[in-house]
Amino acid sequence: MSQSLTKLTSNLWVYQSELYFTNSGIFLDDGQACLIDPGIFPQEIKMIKGFVGEKQAEPQSLVITHSHWDHILGSEFFPGVNIITQDNYLKEISGGNETHILKQIKKWQTECEVERTQPFEIPKPDQTFNKEMQLSVGNLSLFHAPGHAADQLVVYQADQGVLWAADMLSDLEIPFVSDNLAAYQATLIMLSTFDIELLIPGHGFLTKEKTDIHTRISEDIRYLQELKDKVEQAIRAGFSLQETIEVCSSLQYRHPEDNAGPHRLNVESAYLELGGDADPALVGWNKMDGES
């Protein structure tokens, strides 16, 4: 586990968790702080909070990039700080989704022996936005970026060329299409127009290499398009879900030994989205007990 925060630019620090290589960010600007998905384990969140205090900065905003359980744990350590999410966040944490999220958190607490004195409460936003929002701290722009999650957002600092890509463009993961394939494709096409000098994924390792940045974007666009094409062809041919999974087994993607499971879930979810006949309660990302 990283034991400290790493300075990336004049006003951005990143902390990487021991769990899922999850990244948390701190933008500091004129004595104010904007936090992005601050930590998973309590000791990590406390380290981030202590760092902000050492810098004599006042937390002004806390951005939750999306409602998946591993991105919402830090806010309770920053009471009174303005929580910002995309509009769809409220829907994503309501009803059966709330039960599912709390179940995932309880499972993690048990597996990792995380002790609590009181039950975790899913944070509610103080401020939401639809398509785009500007923050004064760090001169940041928030953009709705659905596909992995319906409420996912990215953080972009145009003057520095910094993109905080939430759960996309990882060097370790393929696209996890746990929301919508068409939306994910549209989001990547949008991001391909950004001038990016520093790319930070929600999980995995950052890059400042232009070639690497271009490759991550182009490879993920290619993967999603090939996934869509093959699944559509299989459905038109009357293939079953299992036959479609076999058809898509030849698709190329990064780290196949680690991403075979997510790839299969992508195929199952795409099969449902594109009109295939299968039970949505039994296949695809909805059947998962956890997601990142």
Question: Short description, anyone?
Answer:
This protein has 292 residues and is α/β, with parallel strands linked by helices.
Mean pLDDT: 95
Question: What is the rounded distance between the termini?
Answer: 18 Å
**Global shape:** globular
Architecture per CATH nomenclature, i.e. the level-2 architecture: 4-Layer Sandwich
Structure in words:
The model has no long low-confidence stretch (mean pLDDT 95). This protein has helices spanning 42-54, 89-92, 95-111, 181-191, 210-236, 241-247, 256-273; strands spanning 6-7, 12-16, 23-29, 32-36, 58-63, 82-86, 127-129, 132-135, 140-144, 153-157, 162-164, 198-200. 33% of the residues lie in helices and 18% in strands. The chain has a single domain (6-287), classed as Metallo-beta-lactamase, Chain A, CATH 3.60.15.10. The protein has seven helices and twelve strands. The protein is of the alpha/beta class. The protein starts with 5 loop residues before the first strand and ends in a 19-residue tail after the last helix. Helix 5 (210-236) crosses helix 7 (256-273). The strands form two sheets. Strands 1-2-3-4-5-6-7 form a seven-stranded mixed beta sheet, with helices on one face.
How would you summarize the topology of this molecule?
Blueprint (H helix, E strand, L loop, with lengths): L5 E2 L4 E5 L6 E7 L2 E5 L5 H13 L3 E6 L18 E5 L2 H4 L2 H17 L15 E3 L2 E4 L4 E5 L8 E5 L4 E3 L16 H11 L6 E3 L9 H27 L4 H7 L8 H18 L19
Parallel strand pairs: 4-5, 5-6, 6-7, 11-12
Antiparallel strand pairs: 1-2, 2-3, 3-4, 8-9, 9-10, 10-11
